[in-house]
Every structure is written in C-alpha cells, then in structure tokens.
Amino acid sequence: MHIDKLERNWAGVALGIAGVFVSAILGSALLHGIHAPSNVETIDSAKLHLSKEFAEDKLGASRNPDGSVTVRMVAGRYGFFPKTLTVPAETPITFRWVSLDVIHGVHMPMTNMSTMIVPGYVAQVKTELHHTGDYPLLCNEYCGMGHAHMWSNIKVVGKAEWDALAKQGGEQHG
C-alpha cells in the first residue's frame, strides 16, 4: 500500500498536534493536582435519612482528629443540603455528597472542585480552599425543571474564626 508523501506529512502534523494537546492536559492536571474522583462507595439513596453518616443531624462540616475537615451534603431536587455552610481556609477538606433522586453535578467556581453525584454512590472530592469569602455551589448536571434554582453557599473563613464558631455551636457548621 502506497501513502503519498504529502498525506504522510499531514498525518504527522495532525498526530503531533494531538500529542501536544494530550501533553498539555496531562501536564496541567499534574501541575495543579487535578485528578478524577476515585472513591467507589455505595449507599441506599432511599434510606439516607436512616444512615449513620448522611442523617439530617450529621450534615455539614465537622473537624477530624487530624485537623482536616469533612463536609457531608445531600443533593436532591432542587437543592443542596445544608443550604449554607462554613469551612476553614488553608485546611484539607473532604467533601462527601449523596443524591436523593437523580444524577446531579456539583461545581464550585474559582476552585478545582467539580464532580457528579450519582444515586446509589457516595461522591468524594478532596481539596483545600486558600481564599476566604463566599463561594456558590452550583448544580452543573440538568436534573429537572427546578435545576436553575439548585445552589448552595460555602463561606470560607480563617482558621481562627472557624475555631471560634466551633466553640460557640459545637463541631457542626451547617
């Protein structure tokens, strides 16, 4: 089989461009610490209110013995629960989400946090938020007629302020 020299050159250029793009994506992901969620944990979405971890009184942010924070949230038509949440800056945070009903997506603009929340599974993302302020938490997966109203607010405060809030209201910051 004969391949014309011009066709071979253009095929090489196309493969070279594809290689540059793949290298840029991989390099950027490694440089910024971006990786695909790898937590595979199942849960019965119909019994979330009975679960030890995702019962209503367990939702929100809580401090772990090692100083990190775990945030537990539930996504359901048409909101994230709890609706507002306070977390500390400069602290490793593990976000854990479950869905009550359909597939939802969660995205926090200006951060590296975005994942899908699939019914029957626990979605988990680890991150560290460096800047204080208010961050919207948006659903980025169409989930029905009220999708546009599905949001929550994450308030990032300094560690000292978060510690003071913890002393006032216990460890849960919902």
TrEMBL record:
Gene3D superfamilies found in the cross-reference section: Cupredoxins - blue copper proteins
Residue intervals passing through the bilayer: 12-34
Keywords tagged on the record: Copper, Membrane, Metal-binding, Transmembrane, Transmembrane helix
Entry keyword Signal: no
InterPro entries from the UniProt entry: CcO_II-like_C, Copper_CuA, Cupredoxin, NosZ/Cyto_c_oxidase_sub2
Major subcellular location class: other
Residue stretches making up the Cytochrome oxidase subunit II copper A binding domain: 66-168
Any single Gene Ontology cellular-component annotation: membrane
Domain of life according to the entry: Bacteria
Subcellular location as annotated: Cell envelope
Protein name, entry field: Cytochrome C oxidase subunit II
UniProt source species: Methylomonas koyamae
